Structure formats: structure tokens, C-alpha cells
Amino acid sequence: MNLDDLVVLVIEPSKVQRHIIVDQLRALGLEDIEEFDEAKPALDRMQHVTPDIVVSSMHLPDMTGTELVTQMRKVPELMDVTFLLISSETHYRYLEPIRQAGAIAILPKPFTREALSTALRNTMHYIQDTQETEPLDNDELDYMHVLVVDDSQLSRKFVRKSMNAIGIEYVIEAKDGAEALQIMKQERFDLVISDYNMPNIDGLELVEHIRHYSDQPSVPVMMITSEQNQGRLAAVQSAGVSAICNKPLNYDMLKQLVRQLVTGAEI
């Protein structure tokens, strides 16, 4: 895959910030970049050309970034398009749908060039790995069995694609902790990746059950969550979770953590 083959749409009402974003993209080797100051023309363009990356602000003149990604995920051709949000928004109501839709990153605004460059590099590594046509040299991961637990189908799909990009092909999905425990009665796993907030049995209850009542008490469990309550996160850590990752997932960090948890390799 050549970087200059990738199509990038940048949607940002500020001409100055749009210029900074485009400059960073070009510095990474991307050339096919289209700029928009509103979401509607960008969505119209996506009907004719499917982008590889969409970089968007949250508050656009005609809709929010949340509404934009929601509309994109309803279109089969746009369901897997990599989405990177740049926003000063902190409200859960706006950000949670974007986290659940599998955004590759949410970058705070105002942003530094260094932070933007890091987020874009992370995005590029994900795209490069998912579009890599040659087999990855990950012999120790080839036979891994991973269980992904999340009530969001889009989140499960993103984690599955990330696992596949890393070199792990065998990935089973569960929609909540209850279904995960039923699956674990039938199969053994090398890694469990779970959301925190889920119906029926949540992530905390799942970890507690795995550690105390299952026949796989030592399996590494990685928790992915947008939970900000420090008390709840501390409870998860005390229950025996192996690692906690924030949503949206940082692909490079995820890749490193998986290797560390399963193989003992240093990060």
C-alpha cells in the first residue's frame, strides 16, 4: 500500500486549523486530500468516492461530528472508513456515539502539531496493517484465540479488525458478559478484550467471574472503556484486570499491549 493512494477528507470550518491538519497529512506522505468546511458536501462526495480516512471537527455549520459518523455508519460502503475526530467537546452525549462507532482517535482542540502528528501516525499504522497484503511476521500470534465482549456491534467490529491487522485471525464476539461466560464454558482463550458498561453482566462482573469461578482464571483480560469514574476503574483494577484502555482505542498501544499480555514482550 502506498500512502499517496489513500483518499482523505478533512472537514473543518476553520481555515487555519484545516491548513494545519492538511500540512500534517502531507508531511506523513498523504497527497490525495480533499477539504470541506461543512459535512453535507463531504457526505455527498462520499457517495462517489469512498475515502480511506475522514478527519472531522465536532461542531460543523450543518451538523455535528456525531451526526456525521452516525450517517456514515449507516452506509455499507462507509461503515469501515477510518474516522478521526478533532474537538474541544467533552460532553458524554456527543462523544460516546463516536467512541462506539469505532473512531480511531479523538483529539482535543486546541491541539498541538505533535499531538496531531501522533494521532495521524496511529491512524496510518492501523490502515497500513489492515490493508497489508503480505502476511505479517507474528508467528507467536498466529494461533491465538481472542474473545471480544462489547454490546456495541460497531465497537466489536473495530476490535476484530484491529486484531486481524495485528495478525490474530481467530476472534469470537460476545454482546455482553453473560454471553461471554457461556462461550468460555465451551472454548479456551488466550486473551479476553471486554467493554466495561454492558447490560446483564458488565465488565467488572465478568472479570470477577473469570478470576474466581471460571476454569480460565489466569487468562489476560483487557478492559476497554470510556468510563471516567475513578472509583469504578479502581474496582476493575482490584478485580484483576490485566490492562485498561480508553475508548477510542489507540491502535499502536493496543498492538503493544496485546503482545505484552500474551507473550510477555516488553513495550
UniProtKB/TrEMBL annotation:
PROSITE patterns, A to Z: RESPONSE_REGULATORY
Domain of life: Bacteria
Keyword Transmembrane helix among record annotations: no
Keyword GTP-binding: no
UniProt name for this protein: Response regulator
Coiled-coil features, chain-numbered ranges: none
InterPro entries (UniProt xref): Bact_response_regulator, CheY-like_superfamily, Sig_transdc_resp-reg_receiver
Domain Response regulatory: 7-124, 145-262
Keywords: Phosphoprotein
Pfam families: Response_reg (PF00072)
Modified residues (4-aspartylphosphate): 195
